[in-house]
Amino acid sequence: MIQAPVSAQPELATPTDDPDRDPAGAKRAGDYVLVRRIGSGGMGEVWLGRHVLSGSLGAVKRIGRAGQRTAIVGAYFAREGRAITRLDHPHIVPLIDIGADYLVTAFVDGGDLARRLQTPIAPAAALHLARQIADALVHAHDRGVVHRDVKPSNVLVDRRGNAYLTDFGLAALVDDPDDPRPGAGTPLFMAPEQRRGEPAGPAADQYALGRTLLEMLIGGRVPLDRESALAELPAGLPDPLRALLERATAARAEDRFPSMRALADALAAIVADHATPPRRLAPILRDPDAFRWAAGAHAVVDVGPDVSRADYRLRDLVAAGLLPRDDVDEVLDRAGLADIGFAAWGDRGRLGALTAADALTRATDVVILLHGFGHTREAWGSLARAVCRDNAQALVLAPDVHGFGETRFRRTPTIAQASMVGLARAVDDWRRLLGVATIPTALVGHSMCGLALLTIDDDGAGLRVARIAVTPTLASHDPALCRRFRNQARLAATIGRIAPLRRWFIRRSATRVEQNRHLVPEAARLMAEEIARMPGGVLHRVARAIGDAPPRLGRQSRVAVVVAVDDPLMDFAALDRAIADVGIAPEHVHRFPDGGHHPHVESAAHPEWSARNGLDLARVIDAMLVSAAEAPVLDGDSPVGLDSTVQLHTTVAGSSDSV
């Protein structure tokens, strides 16, 4: 079997960062600048790091604030370093560097198996991963290391579908009896003898790998009871595979395979090429009553093998009796809108039909995509599908906003309604109206909406909410850009009164302005038509609102900024001022090598740019959902939004299934 090495290539999201540059204020661990956080747990945080000299990437594990409170965490940290230094295997993430409160391993370009399990895994692929982990455990056992915490979240899967065993923090070393917590582990994956507090030997890793393979074959969390778990295996699996799982998960250690090598050999002999992936709906996580509106879609279409799209309008939902008229009227009146149109994307294999309320109850994450000036929700179709592909339990929502698409202003908006703060507030009101405000959420705003997201602070955005500003229009910090939008506002106020002249001028200029030069002709045409149909008074008020955006509001820790280095609207000195002004961590600023002002929209000259940028944006979204999920919900799971004065107190999230 050919075994792929751990990826040592730079992650695409940060390829243009100068490897010799240490960004001002960026956090460091030894010789690694921390680029962005990619995970966290009870013992600390994991960051993507970049070596200050070579530019190579690594995964930097640091003892977090919560972890520093206990000496036992330091003991685990030191034990993990001692364990990994003994190992050298292509499917064990290698140790690169170690310090007093950090260690650096190779960066695997992918996610963990727990996240991967949100999308069905074919039995042949599950066996492939299990064989690689079994071989890694054979190597570890031969060198006196018992992992003791084999589970999906401790298995990384790269973009090529190869597995890597990681997190040896609970490892037992046969020649080191000084174990800080002999009964530690994850209950659902701990062998019976381990749960009883007895010493965990190689047979315990065998049991945990068997449970991990069960989850891959079944498609998610399985019961602790062995017989109940085995009963959930889908039909059509080879008999030798069922027999292997029964033996590997036997209650008594002596009834399992005599060694991990014997289990690995048995796995290698099984063929499951013709078995189909499991089709298993995700579990119900919340009351479906708040999501009755899901049944009111006016259009539903399949946009991929497993992904569906449903389209909605608030007024339709009121007419169907699926949303309260008074609540909808209040939201629309406050924003000055006649209606709000929006789309939802989701994996029907994991969430079920989008038009059923249960789909919303199964979603673990919500990703809300907010388009820029002149666009509509259609600009996000490709990214929405990519997010659903990589995170099958995420629900993606994309509204038309601020007078574009199906979301029209009733009349010329007031200054407050047209403002960027007003835009952010309208989005917040809309998502609370839909009942999704308590679900971990990533708000992704492009251009104008990126600026709108930066006008609110962490408390204003709400708990369990992270924000990603994609090529934000930084008129708040760029005087030249501010003057440009104010001039456009004055122009709209003059020629905007003459509709034919306004439409001719917009259509002519939309294809000539530098920020649109990357777009395919059809996208540029649609953008011009969308702006041209907007009344001159509305154009004047919105353009002036962008130019008058407030320069600062509070501190922003759960925020990432994505910029393209060739964006003609971006003054990078203004970007640095904005980052410093609102407190965005330098490691949360991601520079794409190209894509102009529209990195997520198809490029005319280089269509591969948008495909690559879409993949990278999906990764940034996934990383920021970590921050969103960590924020606790206070006061009985009540949503907190722009009108709340609740003070946020963040904590490092613990690994909920480990003890």
Structure description:
The relative contact order is 0.10. The protein is of the alpha+beta class and 659 residues long. The radius of gyration is 26 Å and the shape is globular. A nine-stranded mixed sheet has the order 12-13-14-16-15-17-18-19-20. A six-stranded antiparallel sheet has the order 1-2-3-4-6-5, covered by helices on one side. Strands 7-9-10 form a three-stranded antiparallel sheet. Helix 5 (202-218) packs across helix 7. It has three domains: 28-109, Phosphorylase Kinase, domain 1 (2-Layer Sandwich), CATH 3.30.200; 111-268, Transferase(Phosphotransferase) domain 1 (Transferase(Phosphotransferase), domain 1, Orthogonal Bundle); 288-630, Rossmann fold. Residues 1-24 and 632-659 have low confidence and may be disordered.
Summarize this structure briefly.
The protein is an alpha+beta fold and 659 residues long. It folds into three domains: 28-109, 2-Layer Sandwich (Phosphorylase Kinase, domain 1), CATH 3.30.200; 111-268, Transferase(Phosphotransferase), domain 1, CATH 1.10.510; 288-630, 3-Layer(aba) Sandwich (Rossmann fold), CATH 3.40.50.1820.
Please give a handful of descriptors for the protein shown:
659 residues; alpha+beta; Phosphorylase Kinase, domain 1; Transferase(Phosphotransferase), domain 1; Rossmann fold; nine-stranded mixed sheet; six-stranded antiparallel sheet; disordered N terminus; disordered C terminus
Number of strands: 20
User: Could you name the CATH class of the largest domain?
Assistant: Alpha Beta
CATH topology type of the largest domain = Rossmann fold
State the low-pLDDT regions, or none.
Answer: 1-24, 632-659
Radius of gyration: 26 Å
Quote the distance from N terminus to C terminus: 36 Å
